[in-house]
Amino acid sequence: MEMALSDSVQVLPSVGPKRLEALQDLGISTIEDLLTYFPYRYDDLKSKELAEIQNDEKVTLSGTVASEPVVSYFGRHRNRLVFRLLIKNDVVPVTFFNQPWLDKQVVVGEEIAVYGRFDGNKKTLSGMKIIKAAEGMDSIYPASKSIRQSTIRNLIEVAWDKYQNEIQTIIPSAIRQRYKLMDRKLMIHDMHFPDGQYAAKLARRTAKFEEFFIFQMRLQLVKQADRLEDGLSIDYKISELTDLIASLPFELTDAQKRVVNEICVDLKRPTHMNRLLQGDVGSGKTIVAALAVYATITAGYQTALMAPTEILAEQHAENLQKTFKDFPVNIVLLTGSTKVAVRKQILPRIKNGEVNLIIGTHALIQDEVQYHKLGLVIIDEQHRFGVHQRQILREKGERPNVLAMTATPIPRTLQITSYGEMDISVIDELPAGRKKIKTTWLRSNETDKALRFVRDQLTLGRQIYVVTPLIEESEVMDMRNAQAIYDRLRTDFEPAYKVGLLNGRMKSNEKEDVMRAFKANEFQVLVATTVIEVGVDVPNATVMMIYDADHFGLAQLHQLRGRVGRSNLASYCLLIADPKNQQAIERMEVMTKTNDGFVLSQRDLELRGSGDILGNKQSGLPEFNVGDPVADLKMLSIAQEEANEITDDENWEREPDNQVLGNYLNENWKGHMAFD
User: Fold this and answer.
1) I need a labelling partner for 511 at 20 to 30 A (CA). Which of 201, 536, 601, 630 fits?
2) Is the model's pLDDT at 573 over the cut of 70?
3) Largest distance between two CA atoms of the chain
4) Which of these, 201, 200, 204, 188, lies nearest to 156 by C-alpha position?
5) Please, are residues 92 and 124 in contact by the beta-carbon 8 Å criterion?
6) In this structure, what are the phi and psi dihedrals at residue 165, rounded to the nearest 5 degrees?
7) Which residues are 358's β-sheet partners?
8) Upstream peptide bond of 469 is cis (omega within 30 degrees of 0)
9) Global confidence as pTM
10) Vertex 437, ends 435 and 441: CA angle to 5°?
């Protein structure tokens, strides 16, 4: 009978329906799943001399059984097995709890090895297991209430004995040689049955790389499938685009020029563009988007720009009107607030192509909105829209090109994993003359000092954001709240300066009205929870004061800080915090040391640790079995580079060195999305 790693684990003896269900709950359905269900740690089973052992240490003791095993019962389902072990001239009492069946393995006069926890004061051993040999390592597996890890270990041993010759090495030999990786059969053996810690370490290194590499190859298949579908080739007029660039009142940064080139190359291709444009706050994404808009328009196509809120859509319309004032771009704004009479005028103009730039909110994807020749879709703050909403907009034209934008710096780890199926353009340079925001961390007993500074800024005619984590008092958490701070600041600053309040309980239109009033300088201090809209420009706001700053993550703090510094005025961020642990202290310190959002976002992942992130679906990080995408970032990056290099050749599967890899991916993943 032909055997394959894709065989169900049901072919193994003792795997009936109940055990199969328990294994499937752990993600084990096939022999391949079982053989790659790796231990999370190893117990070192090498025997030690009594004199070497530390108190409370887990050790293996080897000796001769010196007394008959005695099992005594106490309470329901509770028992104790006791015997004595002679080790040279010392006698060590050994106790096992609730494992009475072990008495059959304890025979007076025979050699035995016991693994357990040693009490150095009483010179006793609390046994965990009797082991077959006193040398080597014992693999410890994640288990469940339905299946014990000893059962998992036994099944892996049986599967290894039967299927080891079916294991083929997936990673091409050139890559294995370059990074000194094991072949797959040896790696799987040494992950489960290592001779020592060093062998286990080498095997884990190869296992991590293989997992990352297969993941990246899957992403490349998704990318290739997207590109195979016909897209629009935007044959833009380079001379007209150059005229627009020449009309700008500033020089593009090198990063902006690089990114514009990447987008324009994509637009010209007959394949579908799916690109993410990311840039830190103030890096100049909007002008890059404007150039993509104009390139599309010069080729006779329309562009739709979708923003998550009306105030952001209005801001985009206002800014782009200025940019295109001397160029043939007809702009309309379409939001939920657009009056019925105005909509009736706008919709036919969009349908007949008279309008070539349509800016709006989710109103852009309504059935009644029909486009003439939609060539480019730009989605601002793309994470704010659901997949379904983005898909509807993509389907409005003949597969228009898609450019997503985000001001949230995406750490390298996430770029490589969660956004790996998109091409990514990064603006990693701020425009000349942009001042860095000076960030200061103060303890809560220095709040009055911070408020004196705020008053000084108000006297200069500036505006202030004040942010706090909670809306109302909470008995659980000792944090300041928006209402209390609002009341205090009104007492301190009114009537000379007006104070406004923005919180999460307000309706969307109420929040937007408050933001419009603040932008218009109708009040000078805005007390808010974190609902301050990303991307809204208030150039006159120069201070961001954050209460209980240690309760925010680094990425959040950086986004809040980015609400100021939107002009050439000196700007400041004041962090009020009394951190209770080292991690929170580090967050405050790193905020005062760098303004680089990419550095901060990666540091945020590192500080929180992948243990807190993996398995948290909202984090965006996929789960890996052995690799840690945060701690093993360098390896993850190399795996991505190698996968990219292989798939750059359309005929990569025909290469003899890639055939096992190609077969593996075809059997396991083709036709599936990158993430299930």
Assistant:
1) 601
2) yes
3) 100
4) 188
5) yes
6) -80, -5
7) 304, 332
8) no
9) 0.69
10) 160
Contacts of 584 (CB under 8 A, 6+ apart): 550, 577
Please give the share of the chain, as a percent, with pLDDT higher than 90.
52
Q: Distances from the Cα of 265 to the Cαs of 236, 268, 329, 347, 647, in angstroms?
A: 10, 5, 22, 31, 19
What does the alpha-carbon distance between residue 37 and residue 65 come to, in Å, rounded to a whole number? 36
Show the tokens assigned to 97: 């709890």
Confidence of residue 388 (pLDDT cuts 50, 70, 90): low
**In whole angstroms, what is the distance from residue 72 CA to residue 80 CA?**
5
DSSP 142-167: ---SSS-HHHHHHHHHHHHHHHGGG-
Are 594 and 437 spatial neighbours (Cβ–Cβ below 8 Å)? no
Q: What CA–CA distances, in Å, run from 192 to 39, 128, 181, 212, 624?
A: 7, 20, 17, 20, 18
Report phi then psi at 180, rounded to 5: 55, 55
DSSP 390: H
Q: Tokens standing for 517? A: 């009033």
Contact 265, 236 (CB under 8 A): no
Q: Is 473 helix (H, G, I), strand (E, B) or coil?
A: coil
CA atoms within 13 A on the CB side of 488: 11
Residues 241, 252 contacting (CB under 8 angstroms): no
Cβ–Cβ under 8 Å, residues 282 and 329 = no
